[in-house]
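Fold it.
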Amino acid sequence: MAMRAKDLQGNITRRSFLATSAGAGLVMGLGVVLPGCSREEAVEEMAIDGASLSFSPSVWFEVDGNGKVLVNIAKAEMGQHVGTALARVVADELGANWDDVSIDHVDSDPKWGYMVTGGSWSVFTTFTMLSQAGAAGRTILRDAGAALLGANAEDAIVENGMVSAGGESVSFADIVRKGDISRTFTEEELGAMPVKPAAERTMIGKPARALDVEAKSGGGAVYGLDVELDGMVFAHPLIPPTRYGSTIRSIDDTAAKDIRGYIQTLALEDPSEVLQGWAVVIAEDYPAAMRAAAAVVVDWEAGPTADVNEADLIEEGNRLVSDKSSGVLAVDDGDVAAARESAASMHSATYTTSTALHFTLEPANALVEFRDGKCHIHSGNQWQSLILPTLATALQMEETDIVIHQYYLGGGFGRRLWGDPMIPAALAAKELGKPVKIVFQRADDSRFDCCRSASVAQLDASFDADGNVTGIEHAMAAGWPTLAMAPGFMPDAVDGNGKYDPFATSGSDHWYTLANHRVRSINNDLAQRTFLPGWLRAVGTGWITWGVESFMDELALISGKDPIEFRLAMLDASGKNAGSAPNSVGGAKRLAAAIEDVRDRSGWGRVLPENEALGFAACCGQERNMPTWIGCVAHVAVDPETDKVTVKKIWQSIDCGTVVHPEGAMAQAEGATLWGVSLALHEGANFANGEVAERNLDAYTPLRMADVPELDLKFMESTEHPTGLGEPPLIAVQPAIGNAIFAATGKRVRDLPIKL
């Protein structure tokens, strides 16, 4: 969602930046000055109140009177060590001692600004402003420290939590306690703040102890599932047979009344209409809630999609991509129709992906209480600012009266971008007048999942008489998550015929130079009406690149060229593919460099044993405005008797710009790569009777430990602006495996998960 990512940066920099004395510490942040409140008055207010009533500050970090630096993290922690990465940015620029740095994951108070953790945006969208914040803090501490030392500020050095000049030093603690640190910066002053050049960084890109490891490894980390409140009761969902349109005819809880601890069953009325035909069982403890849920009999009137199955979704996708009038244009370069009319030959291929589920380790949960006129929600969530308006509608409350308390997430992967599990707990707590904790069993979690939609993509290429590609038309149909949950994020189509979901389109707008290129993005309305399409790690690029990169291999074969050389010839960085500062400096040439690096490291072209081969794919995810350039090679062996596919090794060369926290970055890249293997060979659900049929890990079978391949992942050296990392290493893995299977067997696979 490149457009919105850019907007998020712009909205923040349009605010004025504050640095001022607040109580016993230095507080740095962004704030919006209220009408009639001058900068000087704002400083005075902050000094009096210890924060600000005149501002709504997104306060990023604090330095207290003991010299301790607290970095406030408004991003969700779900295993990616995002807090450590963001704290490293601040601490490096500030000149702090890393041993004095800690982090705090904050709640949804409006003062923290817009809150979202997804799309691989976290470091990308905050790197510049956090760098400037740290640099501004360093400037204040340097000036105040120099004054205490009787030295010129220009002669002072700030490092390791000390300001030094003339052979003497003063600590951050003494500066905060004794120095003059009240100061404001205009937007222009902040933008001109002297951020360190890459060569002078002492923390960014260097090994570091992740700040959350101790809590996680020692059991101190608190996840949403861990939270308890006095007087709370437990809720177990009773999920209707269809996501939409179901209604409850009757509820019979006769058998449940014999279960010790059972309290009652509530039919829920949800003004937001997210929950349709829902009920929840209430009990004193969760085992009782589970037993009672199995005993309660609900008679439902199912919605209109009760007979829809996976084949119906794929059939509708096929119909849509074949209909030239369907969808809207996301890319329309050159004249595809003219290239087709003058073509010496054509080649077409259709690719599909099955429904994919999230299966987070921590099942969906939420604990809700109403206290002092406020609704307090305890749960791990990725996009607090998205669910708050829906919660306000469901509860008939103001958004400002709802507080989401953030906890560690036992896996997010896009499932917790939408906080819908909070809604039934909140409705029940409001009706009962006591705290309610809802926990979804795995099968219910699967039924209620915002799954990645099944998809169909059709690609048509035209060739001239010399075998050169003259144009490509790409049509793809799927359910659109952004249409369902965040329609305001959808950009206008280039043909002016509507809007499209960038999370169901990105990856098709690749960096290969094509004179004629058209992309048609199509909403599969049957999918949209059957379930709630969701964002799953790598989102659109995670399934769209499957078709793009598999098709590129097919075109290379037709052209009689090596698959890598075929791609490199189209990565000339001309026109729109030249790239621009700061996000895509170097353009397609950086992708070419990553491809050349992985080609050389993998020994591309070497002779392998029979039934083994290397396959290649590239990607430039997550979004075009935030490209992470990746070349990927997969080594695959196929048993000719059983058709069992074994992925032996995967190489990836990854250019994500500046790598802030190398250990966290590698962990993310490894996890994403393995999920790519899992989606390629193992993961796929099927809709049956309007719901997913595979509801637990006996039927839905992700990658097992025994099938984990050797990984050889490398980050390209770069000092450019950091781009997304949590998701892109997943993207090229699937087509690389598919292309390797073809090279080993001659069988072209076009459906995910791959079945020979």
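The first helix runs from residue 2 to 13.
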